[in-house]
């Protein structure tokens, strides 16, 4: 099936009791067992089924199957937020210690997770000087447990060379984990290019309406955990908490996602509620259509900004002179992301005036909404980073990040135009004084 069909139908057929066409909301904490032996089999991971909604829920299961099929993976785990998904994704490869080698262009909270939070748990985040594959390879050593990248950086907008990063990671016996939130599987399927694990903030484009927090981890099923037994003992040695179960032996290709659920979801409980899963499923049904409009609108807005004398620069990878333009053609079929940044002449103060003058475009820190959104990263999402870390992440003091929505593009441009006029008028008055 194609994306548009998967997004509507995958993972669910009308259930036998009521024949409900919409996915039911299974608002229950627990599930009855047929017998003592049935309950034991579920808890021993010997039988499929539901035992407690902290571990799995039928509504969330449909969402997981749908996301996994969109990405072309063997399984997925839905969790409470995108940050919870990232946390589980990292510790699920490195809970025996080690390091994660990452590109520097990251969402601010992801950078904080790798630079400050995980080191307290014995996992070190190593940040390369750039997203170039050779810069990544320099940092990989015998203690590396994964390479990490955002397929499209937030807010930098850089497009990573997934195939090259995967080749380097695999040459050193580690998986490539990617955050595919901005691209979504509609624009890019990273498993097709060698990535092993994909992470999503479902809050963003896949949910698409700014109502619901959620995250997901998707397993390609392709990384050979058993081949690297010394580097990944958690998959190849008996787990005492499950009576000596060995994940690579019991689950084979689904070992990663089954361990994420059985170890981390079960014990840490970053649970996606059934109602939130239902809301996210509504968003997923229209994601293919929305992405078309997002991409089309963003191109027109970027072109408007580039031709405007009031604008100092536009960082949009859909322009042929962008260093990432060849990668947009290779990985995104020429469809540059609707997330991009720009700067106004007059620097930070002019940028703030522009930001405050917006009327239609909403000022907030979310992205991927049906509505157009704007953010000043240096003072919000990337505020905890040093000036040099911000620069490496693609954030300058004057940077404005736009997430272009699906409104009529003329209305979006008119709002930007009037805000630019106010920003430049303010800058001229200050210069005159």
TrEMBL record:
SUPFAM superfamilies: PLP-dependent transferases. CDD domains: CGS_like. GO terms for cellular component: cytoplasm. Its cofactor is pyridoxal 5'-phosphate. PROSITE patterns: CYS_MET_METAB_PP. The modification N6-(pyridoxal phosphate)lysine is found at residue 204. Pfam families: Cys_Met_Meta_PP. The keyword Oxidoreductase does not apply. The lineage of its organism: Bacteria, Pseudomonadati, Pseudomonadota, Alphaproteobacteria, Hyphomicrobiales. This is O-acetylhomoserine aminocarboxypropyltransferase. One of its GO terms (biological process) is cysteine biosynthetic process from serine. It comes from the Bacteria. Its EC number is 2.5.1.49. Keywords: Pyridoxal phosphate, Transferase. Belongs to the trans-sulfuration enzymes family. It comes from Bradyrhizobium nanningense. GO terms for molecular function: cysteine synthase activity; O-acetylhomoserine aminocarboxypropyltransferase activity; pyridoxal phosphate binding.
